[in-house]
Amino acid sequence: MTNPMPGLPKPPLKPSRPFFSSGPCAKPPGWSPSWLANAKVGRSHRSADGLAAIRDLISSLSRLLELPSGYRLAIVPGSDTGAFEMALWSLLGPRGVDVFAWDVFGRLWVRDVIEELKIADVVIRDAPFGRLPDFSAAGPDRDIIFTANGTTSGVRVADFDWIAADRQGLVFCDATSAVFAQDLDWQKLDVVTFSWQKCLGGEAAHGILILSPRAVARLRNHVPSWPVPKLFRLARPGHFDEALFEGQTINTPSMLCVEDCAQAVRWAESAGGLAGLQARASRNASLVHAWMARSQWAADPVADASTRSLTSAVIGFADPAIRDLGESGQRRLVAHLASLLEAEGAAFDIAGHRGGPPCLRIWTGPTVDAHDIEAVLPWIDWAYHGACAAAGLHSSGQP
Q1: Could you give all domains of the chain from N- to C-terminal order, each with its CATH number?
Q2: What is the pLDDT of residues 196-242, one digit of tens each?
Q3: What's the predicted TM-score (pTM) here?
Q4: Which residues contact 382 (CB under 8 A, 6 or more apart)?
Q5: Is 283 exposed, middle or buried (0-12, 13-18, 19+ CB in 10 A)?
Q6: Residue 334 in 3-state DSSP?
C-alpha cells in the first residue's frame, strides 16, 4: 500500500495477531482448527457423550471462575444479551429497580425495564461516557442492575463495596467484558452473565448465566406478570429448572462451540488460571494507558483513572483540530484511520462503537498478547497522522 504520509515512515514491526475487536475477540494464543478435533459433531447434545461434554464445560467454567458453593452456572442461547434478558424477564417484578447506566449496553437494559417489561417503580441512575453514576444511591431493598465494564466507554466498576451485604433485593450484573479480567465479589452478586466470546475468545451465540442461592429462591417463589418466551424460561410456577444448570440446555448448542470453549478453558488454566488471566488483561491495558499519557494527540476519556477498563481501552482525541471537526468529521477520521490499519494488516476492528462518541477502541483482554499491544501502538500513531494528512489537517506530534 502507498504510504499516505511519506514523511512519516511505517513502523518496522506489526502485531503477529492484529485482532483487537471487542467482540468476537481474539482467539487464545496458539489456537488452530485442530483444537476442535474432539468436538461431538454429528451427535445430539442430549446423547450421553454430548451431555457429558456440556456438563464438563459447566464444571470447568465454574472452577476457573472460582464460584462459591451454591452458585449455579448454565449455558443459554443468545450470547450475553440473551442471558441477561432471560434473567430480567424471569426474575424482575417483586421489587422496585435501580438501573445504573453509563454505556451503550447498560442503556439497553434501561429500555428493557421501562419499555418492554414496563416496570413502574424504576429509578435510572445515569452518567455520561467516561464517568460512573453515583452507586451510593443504590437501595438495599431494591433490585439493582448494572454493567461491570462499559465496553463502549472504557469505564469499569472497580469494586463492589457499595452493594449492601444484607440487601433484600437482587443484584443483576452484566459482566461480559469484565469476567476473567478483574475480581468479581460473588457474595455481592446474584445474577451474573457473560459471553465466552469475550475474555475466552470463544465463538459467538452462546451465553453464560450464573445465579446465587438468593436468585434461585426468587425463581422458586416468583411468577412474572408478563409472558415469558420459551427461550427465557428458567422456571415454571413453583418449579425451578435444575436440569438447565446440569447441561440440559433450552435449545440446541453448537458442539463445535462447546469444544472451542473447553479448549479455551484449558488454555486459561495453563496461563495461570483466573489470576493469570487477570494479570494478562491488566498488563495489556496498562500499555495502552501509558501510551495515551505520553501521546500528544490521544486523550483518555475516563475521568477517574482507577475506573479504567482492563479489557476495552478507549482512545479519544486531545488535538483541538480534531475536536473542531465535530462529531461527523471525527467519525470520518476514525473510519479512515481504521481503514489504513486494516489495509496494512496492522490492526483490525479498532473503530469505536457506533453508539458511543467518536473514538478508537482496543480490546486488551487476556487472549491478547502484550507484545501485540506494544507493536500496534506505533501503527496507530502512523495511521492517525496519515488520516489527518488526508483530511488536510496538521496533526499534533507530527514530525
Answers
A1: 35-269 (3.40.640.10), 273-390 (3.90.1150.10)
A2: 999 999 998 999 999 999 999 999 999 999 999 989 999 876 688 89
A3: 0.96
A4: 5, 8, 10, 11, 340
A5: middle
A6: helix
